[in-house]
Amino acid sequence: MQRRIRQVLCSLKEHTSVNCAKIATIGGFCDLDHVVIKATSPEDLPFNEKYIHEIMKIFSISPTSYREFALCFNRRFRKTECWRVALKSLVLLHRLLRSLPEDSPFRPELLWARSNRYISLYPCDFQDFSSSSAEDYTDFIRSYARLLDEAIDCSAIEFTETDEDDMPDSFPDQMKELGRMIEVLPQLQSLIDRVMDCRPTGAAAKNFVVQSTMKNIIRDSFMCYTTFRKQIVVVLDNLIQLPYRSCAEAFDIYKKAAIQADDLSEFYNWSKSMGFCGAYEFPFVDRIPLIQIRALGAFLNGMWQLTESSSSTMSQLTSNVQSPSSISDDEADEHPIKIDEISATTNKQVKLEEETMKKALQKDKEIGPLIQLDVENNVSWEALLEASLPSSCIDSRRNVFFPNDQMNGWQMQVYTPCVLPSSANPFLHTNSMPIYHVPFPANPTYPWGL
């Protein structure tokens, strides 16, 4: 009984404020507060678009009315206990965010009002007392308010299709553009999550005003997801060129996109079944398989492990090259222990290198040469080589042409190389196997006998 009395009093209060605003408008006392009250009437009717044009007309006449609207919106949204008034207030804010240009003072004034706690969309303290299904409507209003709170922060996002052909030509500009995309993509993912959180339940899902609001919310999610899908493709195409931190952030975005794609596909299927938008309006949701995530993660881990190993070896080499003399006196006074440690490590390394060199020399001495010459006879290796060759080869070797000053230019002499007899070369063994000549039939089609 007490709850029913509170519902009646809430409805009476809201209708009275709307009637007073209408009377004031007829009497010529039309200001921004009256327009906001009339636009948020507690009736089961969709939002009237004519109030958007009236407010924008006031904005064009008086630039100072942006802050006044923020204060009027806060009074209307904070004091109401009717879900219809709260919902239409949020729809009014949503439509103004979409209609006004980015360079207008509307968004900065909203940020100023939120920073000074004149507007509190998240956390939202709204509680409905005007219906029997108050919990369903309260949850929907709070989710919608949180969505608009993040939309104010993401107001500078340009919902454009960025392809790889649109990237700048210079490498620094490309890295700057990719960094901007990596900053924007998590915001788009958060907006998509807030859109899915606005899914009404219970009696709220069957209400006509809530359904008309969901159509605008879902259509905005189409632009968010289309922009996200285009930009994530560009980031993945240039993933190898990114630094480590940006590469890790991009991989986290890609992993979250794989999980979010399943939830978004289910949300869009539910929206189609509810008839919020036409089936042709919904974008295609790209499903990302888990094996693709694992393959990309393994590839990035391997790539950065190679980079870290190479960088660690270079750092070790540079640290070994640094001598204690390169350290200043002030640093030596502040860190005397570190200098002694550095000198000790360098001395150890020098000793190890000397020991390895000694071991190598000892091994060379132990092994010795493959051919030992007779040093006692004092015979040189040139004499041994000439003695091993036959006289015919020595004579033919002497016929090789060498230029000298007495001859006119270069001349070539053709000579036959010497043929060593089998007895002169101990490594030459003639093959005594007989050779058989087998005749094959002639075939003009296959002249090579194949």
From TrEMBL:
GO terms for cellular component: clathrin-coated pit; clathrin-coated vesicle; Golgi apparatus. CDD domains: ANTH_N_AP180_plant (cd16987). Keywords: Coated pit, Cytoplasmic vesicle, Endocytosis, Golgi apparatus, Membrane. SUPFAM superfamilies: ENTH/VHS domain, GAT-like domain. It comes from the Eukaryota. GO terms for biological process: clathrin coat assembly; clathrin-dependent endocytosis; vesicle budding from membrane. InterPro entries: ANTH_dom, ANTH_dom_sf, ANTH_N_plant, AP180-like, ENTH, ENTH_VHS. This is ENTH domain-containing protein. It comes from Coffea canephora (Robusta coffee).
